[in-house]
Amino acid sequence: MTCNLSYIIATRNRLPFLKIILEKLIQALLPDEEIIVIDGKSTDGSLEYLEQLYHHKKIQYYTSEADRNQAHAWNKGFMLARGKIIKKIIDDDVFCFTSIRKCKGWMLAHPEIDICITNTLQTELINFIKINKTGRLDQFLTWKKKETTCFTFSDVYMLIRKDTLNFTGLYDTQFRMIDWEFSLRCSFLGAKIAYYTGYNSLTVDTPNNITSLSTHNVLKHEAQIAKVKYAYPGDQSEISLWSKFKILIGSKLHKYNRNTSFINTKNIYKLPKENELILIYSQLYKTLERENQQGSFNFIC
User: pLDDT per position in the chain (301 positions), as tens?
Assistant: First the structure.
């Protein structure tokens, strides 16, 4: 059977999150879809978990080896994917597979489209009750009207046709915020992008994710490179407010942990216990599903 959609996951030492997302994904997987996991040589039991899933034919491919950086890991997934369309899955985020399949079906019916992006919801693990809505529709429409040469968007809610990578190239391994550079490159090159006004993801800020471990100076430097390379005028979001918030939380965590005894202090930012984490994510999945059921959404291209 032709593989129409490849889900790719890059992970390292994130077993509690990996279990949640893979359980959801495996339950939702269709015959024309596959799951590929790129593990960065985890030491927390992730490898054994993936071996078990593969042995029982729950996932189609996995590898476990050291990666040079996150772009290197994700690029492996891109190259291994057999699907016509690729959906990147972040291990600690929440996804609506019904919404993703609408985008998949629309892209299959419109082979001229290279990339499909959507709106998204946002929250943080330490305050998961508070949900924010966000999107890049205004920036997309400005770009469509050729009022700007390019615009930024997150790859959390992106579906991309694999053949498009021959045109756009893979992730740039010199960047930490790889989706910012990649989105600017794709739009600057004139990739055919469609926008779905529904929500296929809910991003969750968690301890030790890539953004929270970044620094403001690193991201500012990367934004300056991209602005020169792609003549990007900026839209007050070279480093998004969400990224700034995650960097701030990450900095506070770093200072907190550096000045705290692990043995004697209860760290309020540490991960919840497994059962509690499962309950939190169950609620977040319901929130995302409910948001998609309440609205009327359409594709814009």
Answer: 899 999 999 999 999 999 999 999 999 999 999 999 999 999 999 999 999 999 999 999 999 999 999 999 999 999 999 999 999 999 999 999 999 999 999 999 999 999 999 999 999 999 999 999 999 999 999 999 999 999 999 999 999 999 999 999 999 999 988 999 999 999 999 999 999 999 999 999 998 665 545 567 877 788 788 778 898 877 654 444 444 444 444 444 444 343 333 333 334 457 899 999 999 999 999 999 999 999 899 999 9
AA letter at 27 = Q
Instruction: Report the distance separating Cα 89 and Cα 104, nearest Å.
Output: 14
H/E element holding 77? helix 70-80
178-188 vs 70-80: helix crossing angle, rounded to 10: 50
Q: Determine the angle formed by the axes of helices 216-230 and 178-188, rounding to 10 degrees.
A: 10
Here the contacts of 275-280 (C-beta below 8 Å, separation 24 or greater) are 277/16, 277/17, 277/20, 278/20, 280/125, 280/128
SS3 (DSSP) at 117: strand
Q: Which domains does the chain have, with CATH numbers?
A: 1-92 (3.90.550.10), 96-154+172-300 (no CATH)
* Rounded Cα–Cα distance for residues 151 and 148 (Å): 7
Q: What is the pTM of this model?
A: 0.88
